TrEMBL record:
Stretches assigned to the EAL domain: 24-272
Regions crossing the membrane: none
Name of the protein in its database record: PAS domain S-box-containing protein/diguanylate cyclase (GGDEF) domain-containing protein
Organism for this UniProt entry: Methylobacterium phyllostachyos
Residues covered by region (Disordered): 272-289
Length: 289
């Protein structure tokens, strides 16, 4: 009986795996069509400098409006796009779109774009240069977010591309820091401009051990000359604690969820107004002689 049940489970597993494969390949087919039709779009989440209270950058995050399945998040389609290689045209589109949008924000606001390891083997440098050229965005207003897996897979080639991008003034952030394998060794392979501490550490920051780890990450990043961003700050308590551990930039639902482009534009402009009024307040308190 147990054997029969085992066979049954096995059969069900295969059926499920098959259904999953089928779903994936139909998703991949849909994706080609969706790129052509323009069903992908970007939302933008502000990154705040806590020392001034102003927005410094927005992270562009991809969304897919599927005609039947509705809104699909990148957690569901990025892996498929990577497996099929479709991330190359999709990623090039995202770079172009994000740069085109950032032109509408007051300077010196930046845009951060996530790039997949697969794009490094698919002409990333050319895609970046094309996006900057077609939008007219200054290179120093574009940041790329990469993960540790990039440096694990083909470090020499990846590092060479990163250095060339750095040379044209594009800043590079190490995303999801602390979640990959052997994080520390990657910090020596490339001089990242920014380190993004993964949400997992921020979520648990009320725990003194998690707080100690965040403090250590901030210390290492600063000693290496990198800016630090805390990802996924959701509560005022978490904000207080990440500030205490020395994080100067934060991103998370406490400030804003990722916003549609029109709302991000408004946020970008008010972010500047906020900063201006803060400066006025300071002047009011210390009137110039
Ligand atoms: P990521 O680059 O680490 O982006 C941060 C993710 O955390 C985003 O999820 C964002 O919506 C979410 N988030 C931000 N603040 C909070 C918070 O306070 N609480 C919680 N619970 N979540 C928060 P999203 O948009 O679903 O993206 C997931 C991942 O998909 C990204 O992680 C990134 O790795 C990937 N991704 C998104 N867009 C792109 C893209 O254009 N290209 C590539 N290659 N990957 C992308
Ligand atoms: Mg990111
Ligand atoms: Mg991240
Ligand atoms: Mg992440």
């Amino acid at each position: 009986e147990a054997k029969a049940a085992g066979r049954n489970t096995h059969w069900m597993f295969e059926a499920k795996a098959h259904a999953r494969t089928a779903a994936r390949s139909s998703l991949a087919l849909d994706m080609k069509e969706a790129i052509r039709r323009g069903d992908f779009f970007l939302v933008y989440q502000p990154i705040i400098d806590v020392t001034t209270g102003s927005v410094v950058s927005f992270e562009a995050l991809m969304r897919w409006r599927h005609p039947e399945h509705g809104l699909i998040s990148p957690g569901e389609f990025i892996a498929v796009a990577e497996e099929t290689g479709l991330i190359v045209p999709l990623g090039a589109w995202a770079l172009k779109e994000a740069c085109r949008e950032a032109v509408y924000w007051p300077e010196p606001l930046c845009v951060s774009v996530n790039v997949s390891t697969v794009q490094f083997r698919g002409g990333l440098e050319e895609a970046v240069i094309a996006a900057l050229a077609s939008s007219g965005l200054a290179a120093q207003r574009l940041k790329l977010e990469v993960t540790e897996s990039l440096l694990a897979q083909n470090p020499e080639q990846a590092v060479a591309v990163l250095h060339r991008l750095r040379a044209i003034d594009v800043h590079i952030a190490l995303d999801d820091f602390g979640t990959g394998y052997s994080s520390m060794s990657y910090l020596r392979r490339f001089p990242f401009h920014l380190l993004k501490i993964d949400r997992a550490f921020i979520r648990d920051i009320a725990d003194p051990d998690a707080a100690a780890i965040v403090r250590a990450m901030v210390g290492i990043g600063e000693r290496l000359g990198m800016g630090i961003i805390a990802e996924g700050v959701e509560t005022a308590e978490q904000l207080e604690l990440v500030r205490r551990e020395g994080c100067k930039q934060v991103q998370g639902y406490l400030f804003s969820k990722p916003l549609p482009a029109v709302e991000a534009r408004a946020f970008a402009r008010s972010g500047r107004a906020q900063k201006a009024s803060a400066a006025r307040e300071r002047n009011d308190r210390n009137p110039p002689p």
